[in-house]
Amino acid sequence: MKESIALKETEVQELTSRIKDSAAIVVFKYQGLTVERFQNLRRSMRENGCEVSVIKNNISRRAVKAAGYDDMEDAFLGPVAIAFSKDDVVAPAKVLFKAAGEENAKVEVVKGVVDGDIFDFNKLKELSVLPSYETLLTQLAAGMLGTVRQLAIGLNMLVEKGQEA
Question: Which pTM was predicted?
Answer without folding.
Answer: 0.76
